[in-house]
Automatic annotation (TrEMBL):
GO MF annotation terms: oxidoreductase activity
Assigned keywords, A-Z: Oxidoreductase
Family that this chain belongs to: Belongs to the Glu/Leu/Phe/Val dehydrogenases family.
Matching SMART domains: ELFV_dehydrog
UniProt name for this protein: Glutamate dehydrogenase
Matching InterPro entries: Aminoacid_DH-like_N_sf, Glu/Leu/Phe/Val/Trp_DH, Glu/Leu/Phe/Val/Trp_DH_C, Glu/Leu/Phe/Val/Trp_DH_dimer, Glu/Leu/Phe/Val_DH_AS, Glu_DH, NAD(P)-bd_dom_sf, NAD_bind_Glu_DH
Domain Glutamate/phenylalanine/leucine/valine/L-tryptophan dehydrogenase C-terminal: start-end pairs: 189-418
SUPFAM superfamilies in the record: Aminoacid dehydrogenase-like, N-terminal domain, NAD(P)-binding Rossmann-fold domains
Species of provenance: Halalkalibacter alkalisediminis
Gene3D superfamilies: Leucine Dehydrogenase, chain A, domain 1 (3.40.50.10860), NAD(P)-binding Rossmann-like Domain (3.40.50.720)
Length: 420
């Protein structure tokens, strides 16, 4: 196979996810039919959304909604606004959501959505129109008991609020359980905004215990300074770790003595951009290879590949982003005895608290921040331990162990329903 083709295959997030699902189902002893069911979403909708722009012109945006498997319950997953969104990526992301739901034992399957657009170049009103247009386009297949969206890259609680309002107007009743990641006043949950980073922090703490690393004084590098990365930087800083590197889409900052996280948080914009304010920056590539104890990719896919996996200095890599490490790089890191906590476990805090939000919406009774955090802590610690133990007893890497646990409930539910 030509070098270029080989690389394209390795960075194809759908193909690599499918290959691990296949391995996981084989290890669990399921027949090939189960893999045939699991390898693609059961439903994939592509929509075209006409939007009147501020200058009076009309632009047609393309959006997607993937529903991977609804054998366990309604599907659930975020909506991404990004110029590089593709159908394949949305499919892979929906499969990862199914796995996360299985790992943290939620009554959901996975879903995911995306719109090809660049919100950084759109006005507030244009963003509102595209958000509402998307909901109108997918309204037939979503709903509180069908498929429940949430925020993801470049979407936030304001966008969830517009989407909720549009859905409630279409259905002619208020349906807070239609979407999660909402503002508190519209039925959002305490702790949702920082939930992904909280979950990652718990995974870092558990992984550090296994590696005998003290969080206090540990050197941490975080790629991405958006929702996941910035809260994480704050939590690590508050726990006494030294955050020596952070980055955004435009570059990275490095200080071996530790960055001033509170200052950076204060100066970042709503898209997680902060490095533009500094003259002395390094590249994202250099950031990943910095000398540190803990490395957290919290931005986008395919950042740790066969090209740089040998250069990673950290002893622990915790994937806050979805799909930041290729399968070949996973193999190299595992061989080098670097403890890799996979995305489907590490970033499951977001969907866990989204589930708590949905439960609170359904019962109309709301929990305190302490209650939410206590429940999240128990879920994340238990899930980490299950996966770590399985990886040791079955002598498989943490990713495969996570996939085995993530896929099992969905496979069992599909079998009981008589689908396979
Ligand atoms: P966000 O939009 O808030 O922030 C993204 C960050 O990544 C920004 O700092 C941006 O500048 C940076 N970035 C974008 N392109 C980049 C590039 N090419 N190189 C380096 N940095 C780049 O997004 P988020 O919600 O923090 O999500 C980040 C990752 O975490 C994604 O993979 C997402 O799927 C995953 N995740 C997020 C949540 C959540 O609840 N927010 C939950 C689970 C997983």
């Amino acid at each position: 196979m030509a070098e270029q083709e080989k690389r394209a295959e390795q960075t194809d997030v759908l193909a690599s996810t499918q290959s691990v699902i296949k391995k996981a189902l084989d290890k669990l002893g399921y027949p090939d039919e189960m893999y045939e069911l699991m390898k693609e979403p059961i439903r994939m909708l592509t929509v075209r959304i006409p939007v009147r722009m501020d200058d009076g012109s009309t632009r047609i945006f393309t959006g997607f909604r993937a529903q991977h498997n609804d054998s366990v319950g309604p599907t659930k997953g975020g909506v991404r606004f990004h110029p590089n969104v593709t159908e394949k990526e949305v499919k892979a992301l929906s499969i990862w959501m199914s796995l996360k739901a299985g790992i943290v034992d939620l009554p959901y399957g996975g879903g995911k959505g995306g719109i090809i657009c660049d919100p950084r170049e759109m006005s507030f009103r244009e963003l509102e129109r595209v958000s509402r247009g998307y909901v109108r386009a997918i309204s037939q297949i979503v709903g509180p008991t069908k498929d429940i969206p949430a925020p993801d890259v470049f979407t936030n609680s304001q966008i969830m609020a517009w989407m909720l309002d549009e859905y409630s107007r279409i259905r002619e009743f208020d349906s807070p359980g239609f979407i999660t990641g909402k503002p508190l006043v519209l039925g959002g949950s305490h702790g949702r905004e920082s939930a992904t980073a909280k979950g990652v922090t718990i995974c870092i703490r558990e992984a550090a215990k296994k590696k005998g690393i003290d969080i206090e004084g540990a050197r941490v590098v975080i790629q991405g300074f958006g929702n996941a990365g910035s809260f994480l930087a704050k939590f690590m800083h508050d726990a006494g770790a030294i955050v020596v590197g952070i980055s955004d889409a435009y570059g990275a900052l490095y200080d071996p003595e530790g960055l001033d996280i509170d200052y950076l948080l204060d100066r970042r914009d709503s898209f997680g951009t902060v490095t533009k304010l500094f003259k002395e920056t390094i590249t994202n590539e250099e950031l990943l290879e910095l000398d540190c104890d803990i490395l957290v990719p919290a931005a986008i896919e395919n950042q740790i590949t066969e090209k740089n996996a040998h250069e990673i200095k950290a002893s622990i890599v915790v994937e806050a982003a979805n799909g930041p490490t290729t399968m070949e790089a996973t193999r190299i890191l595992t061989e080098r005895d670097i403890l890799l906590v996979p995305d489907v476990l590490a970033s499951a805090g977001g969907v866990t608290v989204s589930y708590f939000e949905w439960v609170q919406n359904n019962q109309g009774y709301y929990w305190t921040e302490e209650e939410v955090e206590g429940k999240l802590e128990a879920v994340m610690v238990g899930s980490f331990e299950n996966i770590y133990k399985l990886s040791r007893t079955r002598k498989v890497d943490m990713r495969l162990a996570a996939y085995m646990i993530g896929v099992r409930k969905m496979a069992e539910a599909s079998r009981f329903r008589g689908w396979v």
